[in-house]
Amino acid sequence: MSKILIRGAKVLGGEPQDVLIDGETIAQVGAGLSAEGAEVVAADGKVLLPGLVDLHTHLREPGREDSETVLTGTRAAASGGYTAVFAMANTFPVADTAGVVEQVWRLGREHGYCDVRPIGAVTVGLEGRKLAELGAMHESAAGVTVFSDDGKCVDDAVIMRRALEYVKAFGGVVAQHAQEPRLTEGAQMNEGVVSAELGLGGWPAVAEESIIARDVLLAEHVGSRVHICHLSTAGSVEIVRWAKSRGIDVTAEVTPHHLLLTDEMVRTYNPVYKVNPPLRTERDVHALREALADGTIDIVATDHAPHPHEDKDCEWAAAAMGMVGLETALSVVQATMVDTGLLDWAGVADRMSLAPARIGRATGHGRPVSAGEPANLTLVDTAYRGRVDPAGFASRSRNTPYEGRELPGRVTHTWLRGKATLVDGKLT
Amino acid sequence: MQRHLISAADLTRDDAVLILDTAEEMARVADRPIKKLPTLRGRTVVNLFFEDSTRTRISFEAAEKRLSADVINFSAKGSSVSKGESLKDTAQTLEAMGVDAVVIRHGASGAPYRLATSGWIDAVVINAGDGTHQHPTQALLDAFTMRRRLTGRDAGLGQDLSGRRVTIVGDVLHSRVARSNVDLLHTLGAEVTLVAPPTLLPVGVESWPCEVSYDLDATLPKSDAVMMLRVQRERMNAAFFPTEREYSRRYGLDGERMARMPEHAVVMHPGPMVRGMEITAEVADSPRCTVVEQVANGVSIRMAVLYLLLGGNEPAVTHTRTEEK
Q1: Closest Cα in chain B to A317
Q2: Is the pLDDT score of A38 beyond 80?
Q3: What is the CATH number of domain A3-47+373-427?
Q4: What is the ipTM of this complex?
Q5: Contact (CB<8Å) B208/A196
Q6: Handedness of CA A175, A177, A178, A182 (dihedral sign)
Q7: Which of A203, A412, B199, B254 has the smallest number of Cβ neighbours within 10 A?
Q8: Rounded to whole angstroms, how far apart are CA atoms A121 and B202?
Q9: What kind of architecture, by CATH, is found in domain B136-294?
Q10: Structure pTM?
Q11: Which residues of A are catalytic?
């Protein structure tokens, strides 16, 4: 593999520097590096970040290849600046055995756009009754470290307790989709002023918060770590903040859409805004942004959830829940966190690369941009402003809530272990 | 007035009064030996009913026929919809047949809004009840009934319901009728009080333009109209209230409670009534109960809405009023 010299990149938003990639690793970082024998990429003041890591992606393969495959999903990831994604377990069949997780892992390796780290189901068939073979999935080639029934909550307190305890043996973590099922029967949107008016079934904040409260207490009791998926309410932030102040080993993620959109969007009855957990209120959005800034929320995770057009081109109640997010995540984070002054680019690198890699034990990812580190890098044109055009997505699905919306920032280059997966905004 | 009728909240005061006044004109047609106007001759209206509803569909159908429209009835049961066809495909199929207006009843809140705004079809959309969202023609016929009873048929023309006190009792949470009535009655200047057990009021009701009370007996003496909503017995299985009897004792309207209402006050019900649950037979059959009038008025209101949304500029009733007397 040849050498690549990235000329004049603001590493983590700092002063422009040159970064020399040699083979799979970063060889040198400094001013005025020699371009001899290297292909030169003129960064011209673009921001260089460690390759982004998404702890929460739905790649849909196996089973729903009509909405996404490992290939299209990892191409979308590379487009969005990601070098590693954690693939959720709610496929068909469910990723609850070593066989399924190895298949997904191998597909990711073959395609080579982005490392795929499969997440294993906590319970067999995501049914919440019987633990899946967590140890076998961990020991498989896929080396699973994150376990989640995402899409469904592990609502049985005993099963949750056992899962939290069991994965300690190999340093795993349970990622909880916090949704009390009885409180959310028939739920269609955040319960509040807007749901009352629209006549859509309410999804109370307490359904999320009560599970988070229970699980941080369980984690404390058994001395395990727990990760909270897509935290969406101001109350959840308060509980996680309290748990961290007690020294409980809890981490939490927020999605880009919960940092930007509110339940007011549902007034359009356009199912592109239908998502689980639902869009909340302005007050929640501000609480989530502040929590991400102060570190109460550790990471941004996309919950990239592709759906075919027909599953959204219908009445609200009949529509599927979820939004694609890999290709817009960094832009939304720039709009909501950087351009608002809440977070600098080093902070973005932490929340979107370093911390998720640490939580998911993604070796080789989320490393500093310095000599000797793996060349997993993302170059961002932060001055760019443009409207979101889903027709240009690499994802097989188009269910974005940002169509036509002006967002800042554009990923121009992504390198996975020194190999360019995205050059000048085009996939290789 | 907007092109479609999706929500009672979309109507201005003047829109609503115009519809009520037009409905009074339409009501006169019902008094004629030949109850028909040529206004919508050559126009096609489809009644697209995804939910079972006998009375609303028949009311729309009667209104459409009295205006000489060609009527197509489509009910989801046994149709392509039960074979998995989407709302979009069903609507486009119907429009391809040259439909000018779609009257839609759907179990999903927002389905009529989607139909009107998604670019699927060009026809005028009239909401005949969607999920627990809106039922605007019901609110209009209720307002029409109140204005007639409380102000008078002729004296009411051009008038709104300023200062009238309306109490709506029952399952507000699951009621599109309650939502539409709160919106429309507020627009027309009435003061609305919702009375229900707290379990049957939506979280967020505090932002609605109305008062909320848990005490029916305290509210009745201050009411010009009391609207009872149907309470489905199955609700008690989901713990909304303990038993049917307890519900009736606390929130049902019987003769004794009716006697506490002011003498001029009326009892209303959108139907179908659950006698013995929210209303006793004594009240339902009393002259103060307007339930049968509401049905008759429903046809006039729906004629008015169809005429105003489809009829264009031609006068609906060409003969002068003196001729009819």
Answers
A1: B108
A2: yes
A3: 2.30.40.10
A4: 0.90
A5: yes
A6: negative
A7: B199
A8: 36
A9: 3-Layer(aba) Sandwich (3.40)
A10: 0.94
A11: 303
